[in-house]
Amino acid sequence: MGAASYTIQSSIDGNVWSDFMVNGLIFTITDQSAIGIDPRLTENCYSRIRINGGEYDGQTSNTMWAKYAPQGGYLHHSTLDTSLHLTGVMSPSAGHGIEVGIEIRTFVSATDFSLNPILPDAIGSWTWYRVNPLDFDDKTLIVGANTHTYTTTNADIGKLIMVEASGDGSSFYGLVRIKTLEIVQ
Question: Which of 1, 8, 88, 120 would you label with 17, given CA atoms 20 to 30 Å apart?
Answer without folding.
Answer: 1
